Amino acid sequence: MPPPVRAALLCVLSCAFFAGAQAFAKAAQAPGIGPTLHPLQVTAARFLFAFLLLLPLILRQGPKVVRTTVPWRHVQRVLFGVAGVATLFAALAEIPLGDAVAIAWASPLFALLFAALFLKEKVAASRWIAAAVGFTGVAIMMRPSGAAFEPAALLALASALFVGGEVVTIRLLATRDSTLTILAINNGLGVLIACAAAAPVFVTPSGQQLILLAAVGVVMLTGQTIFLKAVTIAEASFVAPFYYATLIWAALIGLVIFGEVPGWPLILGASLIVASGIYVSWRRTGPAKA
Fold first, then answer.
1. Is pLDDT at 233 greater than 60 in this prediction?
2. Is residue 83, in this structure, part of any structural domain at all?
3. Pick from 54, 41, 13, 11: which is nearest to 186 by CA?
């Protein structure tokens, strides 16, 4: 299997786990199964349980697992990730969900831009086209309203900016450190920051909620591991458009698990996202490479 195809498939597979983690997070916050959980507490649980799963490997490797020649890049990645979540939560408090998500999913476009500026990757026109088509699919799926043009929408745009920066930073780290080092530092720093932020709003979850929160961390960590493998195979600018697959997996999970029947905007938008992924992969591996 050609490396670009492997990278594309790995990215799409990682997106399935990211969507699964979101589904577990949603289930943990469903009414009737326990106390109301603040999003910051769910975020903290995501980092905590991922770190606990990694802990035996970290202890077996010893201090060398956190040795790196680019420590500030790891800090940068964590700050990008936390800032991306924080600004998205802030946007959700001010504008409708569809508007915030549609704007925040401009992140692959920013990832392409940053890959060209900071990683000096040659971003072919086909990748820009694919990312733009994918973003159009997101906009159709989420059906943003006029609130997308309000000042608060800048918060969602900032989230897209931070997440795009995180994707490019992950690509840089993947060429310098091992997967375990990247995951250990990311989740170790993440759990400290997220738990400190969640402490004021902490409530004791029910047993069912605790299981769901643990699943969020485990599934997210699995997705992270697969995504890291994808960006070691291909450039960030190639992988970025495939990140839209998270929304398709989320729609499928919503249909199967939560009974959320997709309407025509979701079907049309998902079709555009799939088409953009196929296009960028074919342009990389087919006879008309770009």
1. yes
2. yes
3. 54
